[in-house]
Design brief:
Layout (H helix, E strand, L loop, with lengths): L14 E3 L9 E7 L9 H14 L8 E5 L3 H12 L3 E7 L4 H9 L3 E5 L2 H16 L10 H18 L6 E5 L4 H13 L4 E7 L27 E5 L1 H15 L5 H16 L3 E7 L14
Parallel strand pairs: 2-9, 3-4, 4-5, 6-7, 6-9, 7-8
Antiparallel strand pairs: 1-2
Length: 293
C-alpha cells in the first residue's frame, strides 16, 4: 500500500473536454478541473510550494506569526497546509467574502480578519503587520514560489495530458501565478503556444480576476509571458458560470466562468486548435452568494 498523504493529492487534476459549450468542430476545448485539489482550488499548488520551501529554508517554524492577504482560495489552501505543518496563520480577506470561505479557513484552524477596503485594504493591513509587528507574509503577489509551483506541476500536466498538442492556454489573472508558471513551461516546450490572460472589463468586479492599479500590480507578473488578453464583464462571467454547471456539469466559481467566456470567444475565432482553460475552484463555496440564484 502506498503511503500517500493529503499533500500527495495536490495536482494531477483532471482535464475534461467541453461537450456542449464549444460549438467549433475544428477546435477542442479542455477544462482543467482545479477544484479537484484537496483544498478545492488551483491555489493548493502555490500554497504548498510557498509553505514547504519556507519551512525547508528555515524561514518559518511553529513560533512564526504568519499573515497573508487573500481574496479566498489562497487563504483556504494556506490554512489547510499550515495546519498540517503545525503553523499558525492569520488570513486577511475582504469583508464581502462568502461565509463558506471564512468558515472553511476557520475549520482548518486559521484566524480570519475581514477588512472593509477590499483586497487592496487587506494587502495594506498585512504589510503594516509585517513592518510593525514582526509578522511573516508569504506575499503571494511577489513570491517566486507561487508561479514556480505551476512551472513544476500545472504546465507539465497540461503538456502531458494533451500529448504536447495544446495550442492555446487560457487563465484568469489574479495574483497571476498560474499564468506566469504555465506560460514559462509551455513556451519552453513550444514557443508558438499562445498564452491568453483574462481580465475584467472596466467597472466589472469579478472575484479572482483583477485589473490591478499600478501600485498593486503583482511583482511576479511579466507582461511578456502573456500573448493576448481578453476582457469579460461580470454579467458574462456570471451567466457562463451558471451555464458551466447546467450544461457541462462543472460547478465552479465566477473566475472560472470568466475564463470560459474568454476560451469560447477564442474558440470561435480559430480555424483549428486545442485550448486548455483553467477551472480555478469549486462552486460550492459560493452557494450562499447570489451566483447561482
Amino acid at each position: 500500500m502506498k503511503n500517500r498523504t493529503i499533500l500527495d493529492q495536490i495536482g494531477n487534476t483532471p482535464l475534461v473536454k467541453s461537450m456542449v459549450l464549444n460549438t467549433n468542430p475544428n477546435v477542442s476545448l479542455y477544462f482543467k478541473l482545479e477544484g479537484d485539489n484537496p483544498g478545492g482550488s488551483v491555489k493548493d499548488r502555490a500554497a504548498y510550494n510557498m509553505i514547504k520551501n519556507a519551512v525547508d529554508a528555515g524561514e518559518i517554524d511553529a513560533s512564526t506569526k504568519l499573515i497573508e492577504a487573500t481574496s479566498g482560495n489562497t487563504g483556504i489552501a494556506l490554512a489547510m497546509i499550515a495546519g498540517i505543518f503545525k503553523l499558525n496563520i492569520e488570513l486577511v480577506m475582504p469583508e464581502n467574502s462568502t461565509k463558506e470561505r471564512v468558515q472553511t479557513m476557520k475549520a482548518y484552524g486559521a484566524k480570519v480578519t475581514l477588512h472593509p477596503d477590499g483586497i487592496e485594504g487587506a494587502r495594506d493591513y498585512t504589510t503594516a503587520k509585517v513592518e510593525n509587528e514582526g509578522y511573516y507574509t508569504f506575499n503571494q503577489f511577489a513570491n517566486e514560489d507561487n508561479w514556480k509551483a505551476h512551472y513544476k506541476t500545472t504546465g507539465p500536466e497540461i503538456w502531458r495530458d494533451t500529448e504536447g498538442e495544446v495550442t492555446h492556454f487560457v487563465s484568469s489573472m489574479g495574483t497571476t501565478g498560474t499564468i506566469m508558471g504555465v506560460s514559462s513551461f509551455l513556451k519552453e516546450q513550444n514557443k508558438n503556444i499562445q498564452i491568453v490572460g483574462v481580465q475584467p472589463t472596466d467597472g466589472s468586479s469579478i472575484p479572482g480576476i483583477r485589473k490591478w492599479p499600478t501600485a498593486y500590480l503583482p511583482a511576479i507578473f511579466d507582461a511578456k509571458k502573456v500573448d493576448r488578453t481578453i476582457e469579460v464583464s461580470r454579467d458574462e462571467a456570471i451567466e457562463m458560470t451558471r451555464r458551466l454547471a447546467k450544461e457541462e456539469g462543472i460547478l465552479a466559481g465566477m473566475s472560472s466562468g470568466g475564463a470560459t467566456v474568454a476560451a469560447l470567444k477564442l474558440a470561435s475565432q480559430l480555424e483549428s486548435g486545442i485550448i486548455v482553460s483553467i477551472i480555478c475552484d469549486r462552486g460550492d463555496r459560493y452557494l450562499s452568494s447570489d451566483l447561482f440564484e
